[in-house]
Every structure is written in C-alpha cells, then in structure tokens.
C-alpha cells in the first residue's frame, strides 16, 4: 500500500463524525430517553400499576385488547404490503441495454465505504469482489475504514498489494465504537458524487453501481438514497441460514419494495445503501450512537422530505450461521429499532408533519411495531400453551367475544400468512430448496424473540454497545465464483 | 408546506375516489342488488334454508361463547365449518343472526364477488369490459343462482371458491406465475372447508399440477417447492379443522359423525350419495359452458377470425346460460327449507299458549329462526337434550319436545341422542306423540289431555 493511499483525516473531518450529535443531540441515540419521555413512561407505568391494583381483570382486558388490535393492524398492513409487492414490480430496474448505454467518461466518481473490524481473514476476498465491480476503476473510490485498535486487520491490509482505487482510513480509537462513527469519517473523506456502504463479506452484483447511477439519474431530485436487495450466498449451510434467507427474502423482496411504492419511510438495511453524497452530508450522516444507524438514517431522510427507492440488484452476504452470534446480531437490530423509534418520537409531530399521517402510521408499524411484536410474542405463546394444555379458565377471562375472534384470527390466519409469504418470497427468488424450511419457521420466531428480549434488556444496560457479528465460519477459502454459484443456488 | 402535507395526508383516502373505475361501481351495485334480494319482507322468509338457519344459530351461540356454540361449530351435521365461521362476523351484531339471515348476507356477498370475479376474468382474457360484465351479470343473476342467496346456503360461496381456484389454475398453466398457483391453493383450501366434496377438485388439481411440472424435474427441488406452495394452504386448512375437533371434542375426526348422509347405506353407495347430494355440481359445471368457449378462442391464432369468434363466444355462452337458468330454476337441487317449522310454531303457540317448547340439536335452530319473539310462549333450545334437566327446570309447566324424525334406530341428527333412549327418561309423565312431516312433537303433559285430539298418539 503506497502512502498516498492512506488517508490522513484533517481535524475538521474528524470533528464531523459527531456533527449530528453536536447540532441536534435530540436526533441521536446518545440518550435512550429524554426528560419528557421519562415522564411519559413513568405516567404510563403508574397508570398501569393503579389499574392492576384496582381493577386487575379489567386492566388486563384493556391491555390484551390493545395488543390484539395492534397485532391485527400490523398483520393487515403486512398482508397489504405483501400483496402490493406480489402484484407489481416496484423496484428500480434497468435492462442490459440501458446499462451498456452508460459511457465510462460520463460516469461520476463513486465512493465505496467498507467498515472493517477484526476481519483480516476476509480482506483478500473483499478486494477480489471489489475488483469485479463493473465500474471504471479510475472513477472508483474505495475507502477501507479500519479501527485504530484493530492492529490485526491494519497489518493484514498493509501487507496486501492493494489496487490503486482502494484507500485506507484509520478511525481513531474512542467511544462509542460503532460502525456509523467510522462511516461518518469515511463520508467526510469521500470524493464521490455518489456513495455506497458495503460490509467486508458483501458481494454486490457487478453492475450494481451502474444501476444505482441510472436510478439516481432517472429519478426526481428528492430521491437521495437507493437501497439494493440483500441476500445470502451460504443459504444451504445449516437450518439457521435457511431461515435467515427466508427472513431476508421477505424483507428485501416483499416489504421494502412495497414501502417504496407507498413512498413510506424505509428503514435502510445494513449495507448496499447508495446515497447522493452531498445530500447525505446535508442530513449530517449517520447517528454514531445508534446501533441500527441505517434504519435511523432511512427515517431521518424521510423526515427531511427525501425519498428512498429500492433497486433490483442483489448484494450477497454471509448469513450468520452460529446461533449465539445470530442472537447477538438480532439483539442489536431490535435495540437499534427501539432506539430509532424513541429518537423519532421525541419530535413525533415533526415527522408527522413532514411525511403525512399515513406514512407516519407506517413508521409506527414498521419501526415501532416490529420490535414490539417480537417482545410480546412469547407472552401470547405462553398464554396459548397454558390454555391448550391446562384449559386454565383465567386465560379465558381475558378473551371474551369478540376479543377471542380477533385473537384467533391473528393466531391462525396472521401466523399462516407470515409463514406462507416467506415460502412465496423464496419461491419467487428461485430458492426452491429453501421453501420447505418455511414449515418450521415458528421455531425461528422463538429465536428472534430471544434476541429481541436480549436487545431490549441491553438497551437499559448498554445502549450504545455494538454486538459485532462474527463472519467467516462457512466459506473460509471460497472464491468469488463459488460464492456466486452458491448465491444462485447452483 | 409542512401543514399542507399533513392536511393532504388526512384527506388522502378521498383521492381513492379518483381511482374508482366504473367496474368498481358495478361491483358495488351488484352487492347492493344482491343484498336487496335477501332482505326479507316478512318476519320469517319461507325460502330460508335449513342450512342457513342452523349455521346462523350456531354462529350466534359461538359469539355468545357458550359451550353449545363451540360443540355446534365442530359437528354441524354434514357441513364444513367455513361458512359458519364467516357467519360469526355478521351474526352477533344484529338480529340477522338468530333469524338466519346472516347466512343470506354471506350468500349475497358471495354472489356479488362471483359476478365481479367472472367479469374480471373475462376482461383479462381480452374481452371488452362491457361484454365481460354484461356476460357475468346475465350469467349469475338468473334465478338458478339468485335463489341460493335468498335461501342462504353455502352453495354460492362454494361456487365462488371453486371458480376462483379453477380459473387461477388455468392462469397458472398459461403463465406459470407463482401468485396464480398460490391463490389457487388458498381457494381450494377454503373450498374444502366450505364443502368437503371439494376434495375431488383438489385431487384433480394435484394431477394437473404434477403433469405441468413434469418437464421441470431437472431444477433442484422445483417440484417439491411448487407442491408446497400449492398444497400448504389446503393442508393447513384441513389440519386446523382436525385440530379444532380435537380441541373441542377430543377427537380430531369428530366431524365425520355428521358427514355420512344415511347410516343404512353401504360405503360405496353412501359415498356416491354424499357426492351427489352434498354439492351443487351441476351449478359448478355450468360455468364451463361460458368459460370453455372463451378459453378455446384464446388458443386460435390471432386473426380476424379469432376476433369474430371472440365476440361471438360470450353472447352465445350467455344465451345458453340464460336459457338453462330459466329452464332449470332448481339447478343444483333446491336446498332443504324450514317452512314446515313455521307451521309447527304457529300451531303450537296457538293451541298451547303459555307452554314450554323444547327444541334440541342442530335442527332446533330452525325454530329459533322461525318463532315469533313477541309471543308469551317459552321456547328453549339446547344442543344436547337432557330430559331430566328439562323436567327439573320447567317443573309444573306443560312441556312439549320437538325432535326431527329419526333416520334409523340410532340415527338421530341430534348429537348424542338415540330414538329409544328418549323414552327411558320420562318418569311420571304420559307421553304423547304427534307427527308433523319431518318432526315428532312429544307432549309430556297430562293437564291438557282433553286438548290433544285423536292425532296425538299415546305412548
């Protein structure tokens, strides 16, 4: 690595990492709850305690009714999204001819940020994958974001013979040690008109950058972000990776394109988010304290009047195949979604005014509803088991008609729809070998709830702690070709 | 600008009005028409079918969360559960439930959706909208179909679901679109839960799907995945039904008790009777007269001839159907009515005012639909007749028990009731029996003995 390929950030660039926190601290997750949120929460708890003390059955009935109504509305909304996605192709998509029509000299500089932490073993595959991007190399500005305390990866990077389009940027050690903090520094040093984030193990489809350029060019100016689809190349590794593939197929192939069609706020997925660099700087980049900074950024873009579109191009990732690490990853996602929800509800009227009532309700269901659903699921599973096995009459008291009718609808229809839509999403993608795993998907939901509760509890104890997902279990020496074959299921 | 956005979003649903097309208005009009058709002019409509009265009654009891309702749901004679479950959404909220008309409302909606879906299907085949909707209207709004909305049977729901599954299967054969196969599977699953006999359609569909995917065997797991997408909704529906039976009656196959139409028939004969009498097959087959010509025209290469044939095929089908509809208003067989019941109610209330009338079992729900609530007579319905409990509860009253005539010695349509057993539990009473068409009226009275004329037989 030649010295000119190592970026030395200026003081200004280093300070820009916390720009959002400095200018709008309320819009970051540096504090879990603000004063008014604490008061609101306290009042809610007090009302609940008083209700339980004075009218326990009545209070539980009201809570049960509210939860079931929430389930019903969330299920109905998700069914609506699935239906919208299956009926129409929503994504931005471009033909081979359109891509070929792009001339190299007309293409802008494209910055690719790749945050790395303890990922020395993936470096060679990463460089190989980046080299395969179908984009003129002189217009490619790849920045490897290395952490100061990660000597292993830094040394491995310095030993490698890196191509010229790859630069290295060392992020100074300090708290919070999160991916968004590194990305903010990368954003400050970016040279590209457009910018995208990839993880170390990501394998984007080679023409993705060109498709994104076309997407930005053919969209109205409010479109400042394009989210590509994510899926896994190691689907077949074990049961968990099969389920995880279903999960991603539903999220990226069914839900996000439908949200795109509705122009509703889209919580961005971890990587492959393409941005207009200047617009990203205008909204002060990522929240360095939020552990799902991508989801938060998606909502913040919407609340600033910008639009996110989805792109029909896939980035192949490595699915976490180890249950322990998977639960840690899931706990971070749930924690981050709750953080994002709390941050944007601090000024709920601002988001409401900016996006309108229906999109605001969509935010409530997708960002607020998803973790809530995962957290209350185990309670209802337990109640169902108790009722079916012990026929405990006290449980029946909580389910008078028509509450029981709605409860049964959620239980039998709602759950079926989620299982079946997962199977359909995989079938549509051509992942025929994954479809059968949908039959036992509820077991995966249990693991999701375990992760959600871990994340919820961690929000209280270690709100900005980043649960790092360990990769590289599955394909230690795989070539890019084998990854491609695995991704295509061949 | 921000305020404008908020205000605009509040009024956003109004913008949906701009998306309304005349075919949506047509759909609303058909719903209104079919609902108008089922609204009764009198307290009790003699067209009301036994099925409608029973399904509405069971739904009403399920909504009241009685054990009677739950038991009724899983063992409602020969009927599958879905129409009763749909009744749950209508029955509890007004008097239509216990009067039996919630089933008619379901029927009216099914008729409207069927008419609309057929019109859409024709439109998607390339016919002009006007032709498509005129055809579907003339086809379904003939007496042979409308009568089923009036009687409230589940025939229309069955035909709707079968029609959707068949047309989606045909679409899948042409397009291989996953959505078509999925909707076909879902509709077939629901059709089986509407009429068990639809299982025949499922078997046929499985054969067709197997034949279709034989060419794609080389793709890894394609066949398995295709079958799963198709079959999972059906298996789930049937599995839930087994589960419900196990949960309520501790026997996953409990519903089979009511399924066999006549215990005296042998297996083969019984099965044939079940298939013939339990389903409106003719009604389901008749759409072929309309659908097949349209489909065949699609196979002809595009030319002026094809256009002419296409234009001619639908009117020809419509004329054929209307002629059939007019000549056979009882197409598919008329459902069993409840009209005798109204006569019995009138007779008993007039002859024995102030008495207690006990009706039991599923068929007892027919009396709930027919009786007049403003009279002083005391009508009691119980799903399982417990003679001792009735005598104890209504001590001192003149008690009349109404039971349907048995089909055999141990073959009552009421669950857990056998004909000889009823006579064993009448201590200290003189029993009189009165025949009224399909009903036996058992009078357990002595005080009014002079009132009972020679038509009453002493037991």
Strand content of chain A is 5-15%
CATH topology of chain A: Spore Coat Polysaccharide Biosynthesis Protein SpsA, Chain A
User: How many H/I helical runs of chain A?
Assistant: 20
Q: Largest interface, counted with CB-CB under 8 A? A: A-B, 32 and 32 residues
Principal-axes geometry of chain A comes out as: globular
* Largest β-sheet summary of chain A: 9 strands, mixed
Radius of gyration of chain B: 26 Å
Structural class of chain B comes to alpha/beta
Q: How would you describe this structure to a colleague?
A:
The complex is a heterodimer of chains A (about 500) and B (about 450). By secondary structure, chain A is α/β, with parallel strands linked by helices. Chain A has a single domain, classed as Spore Coat Polysaccharide Biosynthesis Protein SpsA, Chain A (Alpha-Beta Complex). In chain A, about 55% of the residues lie in helices and about 10% in strands. Chain A is globular, with a radius of gyration of 23 Å. The two termini of chain A are about 35 Å apart. The mean pLDDT of chain A is about 90. About 0% of the residues of chain B have low confidence. Chain B has a six-stranded mixed beta sheet, covered by helices on one side. In chain B, strand 1, helix 21 and strand 2 form a beta-alpha-beta unit. Chain B is of the alpha/beta class and about 450 residues long. At the A-B interface, helix 14, helix 15, helix 17 and helix 18 of A face helix 1, helix 12 and helix 14 of B.
Question: How is this fold's topology laid out?
Answer:
The complex is a heterodimer of chains A (490) and B (459).
Chain A: E1 6-7, H1 11-15, H2 19-23, H3 35-54, H4 56-87, H5 96-100, E2 110-116, H6 123-131, E3 140-147, H7 151-159, E4 166-171, H8 179-189, E5 194-197, E6 203-204, H9 208-218, E7 223-232, H10 239-262, E8 273-276, H11 277-282, H12 293-303, E9 307-317, H13 323-345, H14 348-355, H15 357-390, H16 393-397, H17 403-429, H18 432-435, H19 441-461, H20 480-488
Parallel strand pairs in A: 1-4, 2-3, 2-5, 3-4, 7-9
Antiparallel strand pairs in A: 5-8, 6-9, 7-8
Chain B: H1 2-10, H2 12-19, H3 22-38, H4 50-63, H5 67-74, H6 82-87, H7 96-99, H8 101-124, H9 129-140, H10 143-151, H11 155-175, H12 178-192, H13 199-213, H14 222-249, H15 256-259, H16 267-277, H17 281-285, H18 287-299, H19 304-327, H20 339-351, E1 356-360, H21 364-370, E2 378-382, H22 387-393, E3 399-404, H23 419-423, E4 432-436, E5 439-444, E6 457-458
Parallel strand pairs in B: 1-2, 1-3
Antiparallel strand pairs in B: 3-5, 4-5, 4-6
Helix pairs in contact in B: 3-8, 4-5, 4-8, 4-21, 8-9, 8-10, 8-11, 9-19, 11-12, 11-13, 12-14, 13-14, 18-19
